[in-house]
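User: I'm designing a mutation panel for Phosducin domain-containing protein and want to avoid disrupting the core. Could you give me a predicted structure to guide residue selection? Please restate the sequence first so the numbering is unambiguous.

Assistant: Good idea. Sequence first, for numbering, then the predicted structure tokens:
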Amino acid sequence: MYNKIELEENATHTGPKGVINDWRRFKLENDSRANLNRKMSVQEYELLKEEDEGCLKKYRRQCMEEMHNKLSFGPKFEGVHDLDSGEAFLEVIEKEHHSTVVVVHIYKIGIKGCEQLNSCLDCLATEYPTVKFCRIDAVASGAAERFSDEYLPTLLVYKAGELLGNFLSCTQHLSEEFFATDVEAFLNSYGLLPEKELPKLEDEEENDVE
């Protein structure tokens, strides 16, 4: 029920018609206020809903990161490692952590596809920090006779000292113009790469803000 005093204070007309007009104006003003308050409530609800969804998304992401960290074993690496001798080549294969996948690119300057493959491995090294990507010149490896120009570029994949993949002239499995995603898909087709690292939570939050 509307407040009688408030109605009387807002009354500006006298007589039956005046009272009716005042009542209509009073009711219209209060209905407008009620509608405004209802709209604000909906906006506040939507805002709270978005905040709740954001908190839930953040919580789920933290749980995924914790689970991923528990399941991630072994060291992490940065960039592609250049090997300068056959001894260094053998050492990285035999002494690396037993859970680490080691990908070695045997190349030779001037051989088609070698430079492009090096660039692709640079990209993959940032996306797969638990994989140790290496490269070595065929001559420096001391096994140039085994890796002649016709077999280059060659990709060798090891884990726990065991050879898992031996891809001579590996670019024959790729298109003439290939990219990191093509090399990634090729290695994944043999199940040689682990799951990718999860993007950082901070990066996702920044994307949500944008």
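For picking mutation sites, this is relevant: The chain is about 50% helix and 15% strand. The helical segments are 4-10, 15-71, 86-94, 114-127, 180-188, 201-209.
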